[in-house]
Amino acid sequence: MRLRLILRLNGSNLISANYNYSLASAIYKLLNFGSPEFTAFLHDNGFLLNGKRYKLFTFSLILKNIKIFRDVFRINDNTVQLFISSPKIDDFIKNFVIGAIRSKALEIKANNTLTRFYIEQAELLPEPNYYGKMRFLLLSPLVLTTLKERNGVMRQYFYRYDDDPDELEEKINNNLKNKYKLVYGKDYTGNGIKFSWDNNYIKRRINSGKRISKRILITREMENPVSIVAMQAPFYLEGDNKLIKVGYESGFGEKNSMGFGMAAVTLTNKN
From 242's CA, which of 44, 77, 85, 186 has a CA 20 to 30 Å away? Predict the structure, then answer.
């Protein structure tokens, strides 16, 4: 299930470019109003499977009219949108709505920049139709990682859009199958999904001198910042609708609870 919040600036119109961690903290704070117990579990532990922890939610702050000053954005429109999504309706969605109603405010403090918003409206969005070949637009960048040897040492590697497409598809599927098991409480036994980039979009963007991959800092007041390489391009999915639904609601790829991998459906084709 997905929520859309309409936020109105309440004070400064500056926001740190590295707001992901602080916005995630603000979401936990609102969730805490509805259920302190669930919030503590989600923040401290999450859902564990095969040694990996999943939070099963994702978000995206849509800032359309901004001007960039190095590591700070100036928001030139008083109203912005925040999308939040999770398959955990009773635990997450309902408690977050309770928090939004009670608090009516959201604060993002990152790198000595405090941005306050008044929560003007919150609404549930209708669920898309899952069928055929579907085109998705990323509302927040997609992250996929693996371990690769470099100079005799195994290091984390962030996939790029031009990596082996079969390898990317396998990573997407394995990630979704794990989330499926956590959501439905049983192993996934279907045929999975087919994944492909919108290559026409990628060609246009590259030809115009723009990048598909981007580097983002996850930082808590600049303490031990973590550099993330993410991909930003539309993509196509085709196959098991239940698996696609899991990705739509909990986020595609990794690090969803830090605001990565949220996607919106832009096209469905039954053929």
Answer: 44
